[in-house]
Amino acid sequence: MNFFQHQDRARRQSRTLIAVFILAVLAIVAAIDILLVAVVGVTSFEPGAPMPPPGALVQANLPLLAGGAISTLAVIGVASLFKMATLRSGGGQVARQLGGVPVESDTRDPQRRQLRNVVEEIALASGVPVPEIYVLEQESGINAFAAGYTPSDAAVAVTRGALEKLSRNELQGVIAHEFSHILNGDMRLNIRLMGALFGILLLALIGRRVLMHAHMGRSSRDKNGAAVVLVAFGLMAVGYIGLFFGRWIKAAVSRQREYLADASAVQFTRDPDSIGGALKKIAVYSQGSYLDADTEEISHMLFGDGRRMMLFSTHPPLNERISRVDPGFRPEELEALAESIVREQKREREAADGRRAAGQAARPAFDAGSIVDQIGNPDWHRLLMAAAVAASLPDNIRQAARSTEWAPEVLFYTLLDGDREIREQQLLIIAQRMGSESEEQVRGLVQTAGIPAPEQRLPLLEVAFTALKRRPPDFMTRMLETVKALAAVDGRIDVFEFLLARVISLQLWESYNPDRVRAAGSRALDACRDEALLLMAVLARHGQSDDTAARAAFQAGCKALDLAPGTALPDTDDWVAVLDTVLPKLDRLKPAAKERLVRALIEVVMYDGQAAPAELELLRAACYLVHVPLPLLTA
Taking the model in full, what pTM does it have? Predict the structure, then answer.
């Protein structure tokens, strides 16, 4: 199952979730009305008088029952909407609610530095912005989660126990598991699940509270006292109906996704012992993955079970998860593994590294099928590439990209021209628009590290994004205007300048409006045929030196779309205007149509077996703007 199939499945599960949620709410409304009928029957019953039939009670109290139903719907609806509104600020809000502490870019703690390096490497390999990173300082269990509506507002949180007890490889496996949730649309579904279930769970909390304090009300010897007790027990029963449905929905949605995320982590790291080792340590440590915080709302988002729960657990049994990533595992081995797991993991990792090194030698650099398969699920080769790119960044530049104070200057730094005269004009624009201090900082970056290499510019943008979005909106508007002015100094827009201006604008808009983002639409590719042809034509002309070669590359893309040979190459002289027109329409394609489109784009780029940095940057920009996170590619 690839990225596009995951998106299709996420959409289907979202519709199923809505249907089940409606059924759960109707069941609760029915239970409330039954409770009201019972209370009315008890309070109106006179000793010695015949009990009226239920039908008569219902007919006589229709206004009361209608009011009860409306009140119940209002409580559930308002509570759910309130919860969703509190989560609009992104995944960091969820992490902070659980006591998460941000991992600063300049942290000197070796464990947190290792965590940040692992997250950045996987983000670069996946082709998405680096998410916010949090540590749950008060939690000694081994656990983690990813939260947010989109990759642009995502946050990854791990427990202190995970940092202390997991090796770097095992931590890498856990983070790869969480990135699978980020890339495949699980986060958005999880956030919606939290909001939808909060309204139901609120009734459970009300039921518990009323039952706890029922004894403080009137005596149960009179009718009113009996009614209070009946209401208390009834609300408790309704609350348990809510808990039942909530846990059942979460378990139904979550379990299969956990298996898929485990499998994705194995493909990403090419080391079953990475995530397998983490799961084994959860099994052998007494604290396991359990958290001290209340995990009722977020249990379906965690890497492992947040608390002991036999019925409707949101996660498959640990032994089953371990067996799927390590078929040779036997449960009786856990006691011995408790003592030998660190030594055994080290020995097996070294052997796996040798196998990977031998296997990568003959691996082709690019292949449309393998690239599409790695969208949302990049392999170990991409992680190695990301680590190499990250290592190529000068330390002071990388630290500046992580800093809230310096991130805007790093953004300007990536746009500087190699021509000294043009660069001086750009520095003057920075001084005029952002102030002399900003200009001095950019000039200092140039003096210490020189002009960035083409393959370093996009990783710097992705690393800097986390720090950039902490700035206020008015500053971001001024910064984006400066970006446009820097790009226009030489009278032309190159590919990276287009990518930077469009992608950073989209990322910031999504981080401010995560609940309004739609990662996929419902349009078929036939409805956007002209737009697809124009996009392929822009790519073909950027990647080839003459019209003949461009036409041949364009025909390769047409073949991938099953279009007739000889389809005319459209005119794309103003390629910036063309892309600004066609990409929003192509973003509304359904996932299966986007998959076909991306395969065709890769065929265009790889027609001649070579890929220039400008081609790859343009391909990355086009894919990102249609919400397809292309894995890391290098020329």
Answer: 0.69
